[in-house]
């Protein structure tokens, strides 16, 4: 898969040799059903394994810990275009409020990416 990502480097600086975990999810709920796809330099996938107790110090008291609590940088956007390329490749385009992403890969790896759906992008450094 190939990823081109626009992000705010002033808020979240990334250096050339940084190892990242990137997750695309349809929801921030801590369920495996919410994960659309995940990739990292080691090929790891996103998983649960968090404390589901309510966070008293949260800006939204009473809310259970979500997927976003395990990541440093989160964006919310919409899948606005999917190009079916030559052969087995597809390219999905996602807009995060003006910051854009293009994700290219084999159609089998992108089967859960659906045009018009909203998506969260979550990043963290390893």
What does the model show?
By secondary structure, the chain is an all-beta fold. The protein is built from no helices and seven strands. The protein has strands spanning 2-5, 20-25, 35-40, 73-84, 89-96, 99-106, 118-125. The chain has a seven-stranded antiparallel beta sheet with strand order 1-6-5-4-7-2-3, with no helix packed on it. It is globular and about 45 Å long. The relative contact order is 0.29.
Taking all Cα atoms into account, the compactness measure Rg is 15 Å
Assign the structural class, choosing from mainly alpha, mainly beta, alpha/beta, alpha+beta, or little secondary structure: mainly beta
Strand elements, count:
7
Q: Biggest sheet: strands, sense, closure? A: 7 strands, antiparallel
Strand fraction equals: 35-45%
Mean pLDDT: 81
- Catalogue the unreliable spans: 39-57
- Order of SSEs, N→C? EEEEEEE
- Please give the alpha-carbon distance between the first and last residues: 20 Å
- The global form is globular
Helical segment count: 0
Q: Give the fraction of residues assigned to helices.
A: under 10%
- Strand line-up of the largest beta sheet: 1-6-5-4-7-2-3
